[in-house]
UniProtKB/TrEMBL annotation:
<keyword id="KW-0067">ATP-binding</keyword>
<dbReference type="InterPro" id="IPR043969">
    <property type="entry name" value="MAP3K_PH"/>
</dbReference>
<dbReference type="Pfam" id="PF13281">
    <property type="entry name" value="MAP3K_TRAF_bd"/>
</dbReference>
<dbReference type="GO" id="GO:0000165">
    <property type="term" value="P:MAPK cascade"/>
</dbReference>
<dbReference type="InterPro" id="IPR025136">
    <property type="entry name" value="MAP3K_TRAF-bd"/>
</dbReference>
<feature type="domain" description="MAP3K TRAFs-binding">
    <location>
        <begin position="8"/>
        <end position="306"/>
    </location>
</feature>
<keyword id="KW-0808">Transferase</keyword>
<protein>
    <submittedName>
        <fullName>RCG36452</fullName>
    </submittedName>
</protein>
<dbReference type="GO" id="GO:0005524">
    <property type="term" value="F:ATP binding"/>
</dbReference>
<dbReference type="GO" id="GO:0004674">
    <property type="term" value="F:protein serine/threonine kinase activity"/>
</dbReference>
<keyword id="KW-0418">Kinase</keyword>
<dbReference type="Pfam" id="PF19039">
    <property type="entry name" value="ASK_PH"/>
</dbReference>
<feature type="domain" description="MAP3K PH">
    <location>
        <begin position="319"/>
        <end position="358"/>
    </location>
</feature>
<keyword id="KW-0723">Serine/threonine-protein kinase</keyword>
<keyword id="KW-0547">Nucleotide-binding</keyword>
Amino acid sequence: MQPNWDTILGPLCMPLVDRFTTLLKDIRVTSCAYYKETLLNDIRKAREKYQGDELAKELTRIKFRMDNIEVLTSDIIINLLLSYRDIQDYDAMVKLVETLKMLPTCDLADQHNIKFHYAFALNRRNSTGDREKALQVMLQVLRSCDHPAPDMFCLCGRIYKDIFLDSGCEEDASRDSAIEWYRKGFELQSSLYSGINLAVLLIVSGQQFETSMELRKIGVRLNSLLGRKGSLEKMNNYWDVGQFFTVSMLASDIGKAVQAAERLFKLKPPVWYLRSLVQNLLLIQRFKKPITEHSPRQERLNFWLDIIFEATNEVTNGLRFPVLVIEPTKIYQPAYVSINNEAEERTVSLWHVSPTEMILSASA
């Protein structure tokens, strides 16, 4: 009689099969975890190493490696979104999140932090209907979020502020909505970002520091927040210096504004940041009670404002340009260059913000 090998070996073989299955699963989990960590590290390294077009190319290479939904994590997606934000590729941010929405077994696009970046990108991309959609996304997030972050309120404020700016500062309802949202963010957790935008928009609405108790309280809080950053000379982040500059402009502190502008120049901020800074500076210049002081300090501040505004212009058609002349002492001297093409002999004029003037012929 032949032995029934299945009966005899079954109890031995089945555990072996189960063991192999468990081992294979462990290998797969370990492999996925390693791959996720590698992707995350590669994205972080790319952000540190590259900028502009080079970063865009590197991000494209990294995305080609993300062909398995199992390797997608919130950290990886957030870092990709931040990387695209760094190069102002807002369309890529929008398309990344909308691609996630179409994946049947992926719920990452439903996470509040990813929706926040999605709404941010929609607002910045500003195609037809983008800002309305961004606002809809954020309002839905705020309705479903138990403990919303101050940045969420501020993003709603930013969207309404951009709608107000798009209207040529004519749509008061959008301005007032922006004020309310920035106020909510500032009251929830005071920050330089929310406080500066709230103060600027209150000034746009007609308030002034001399008569507004709310503006005075905001000013005191902003000075306190700036004090925590340390001295201007030790600030190495252009965001901090830009905020110092804006607060100084709000306070009409010409001396500190000049120092902050000089510091900002040395830190070489990207043009996209300067454009954002210029928006508030233009609003302050237009709506804040003007300074009547005529002094070398004011001339120096006007020069730095010209430098910042000029840096954000894609096309320059003027005949006079602000420049910085490096003296033999390695000190930057503010100056202007004027080009005269109308004269019989074309000339280039150079004059410092101080009275000295020098004229060179075009052949010199």
